[in-house]
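Thought: the user wants the 3D structure for the chain below. I'll pass the sequence to the structure tool as-is, report back what it returns, then summarize two notable features.
Action: structure_tool
Action Input:
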Amino acid sequence: MILDDFLYLDTNGLYCKYGNFYIDPVQPVTTAVISHAHADHAVAGNNEVYCTEATVAFMQQRYGKNAAKASNIAGYDKPFSIGGVRVVFIPAGHILGSAQILMEYEEVKYLYTGDYKLQPDTTCEPVEWVKADVLITESTFANPNILHPDPVAEIKKLNDIQANILLGAYGLGKSQRLIRLINDHAPQKTILVHHSIMPLNAVYQKMGMDIGKHQLYSRKLMKEQKEYVYIVPPFTFDSYYRATGVKRLFASGWKNLQVNQNDTLYISDHADWSDIIEAIERTQPKQVWTLHGDGNHLKKHFGGDIFVKILN
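Observation:
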């Protein structure tokens, strides 16, 4: 029997009382299962965490000794137990080390997707599918009007821009994916990287992930027009709003983050509407619970065929 209260939100985040642990808590807790290392899913200061090897590495790079008092590393498809709940990490395809969290309790399977994507990405493990009785899916782009374009076609747009480019991107995951895409599909570009992104790139390299050629930003280099692409995190991108001699672009699935009407770069690391529908088809759940977005479109789409519950 599916337990309606198997997961619920409280002030610390998403709680599983049957295993006495939180999933991606928003405040430090005693026991946390972390899906991936983005800061809105992996906070510092937890007493004990369970996550993948890459997630631990990113958290330690970002938080140092405050990453967690104790870190339990689990590989994909390697079951472990917390309390009375059996837990397995399944690749989510979001960033390096990202995991869906499959929980089994009293012969019922609950699958928490975390953030995930279906688009190909050679800088992380591809998404995998398992059957579940309940799918707890992110719904960031759960709107039938949002369909993300092919990322290769998007990155090839850079070939038509002869000027230097100031490219805004989130430091972890998106930046490394862009470096690989530019190397593969706009190889004449020289990629310069903001200093804050370089330590994250080093973790990728330590984990055996080849993201492609890039170098640390130099102000001297950017004074020349040689088709440089300078990748910077959002806070730096916003501070360069008066930058001259560059074409400003921001790589995102969000329309409001595109900064030019004529030059856009729709590259998202989240599932769009069609991807979420495919995820539901692949996992074949009896119920769908939604997080991190608007689940009303899914509720309307499925009607009474699948029970849809909105957790947030």
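Final Answer: Structure generated. Residues 151-257 form a domain with the Rossmann fold fold (CATH 3.40.50.10710). The longest helix spans residues 174-185.
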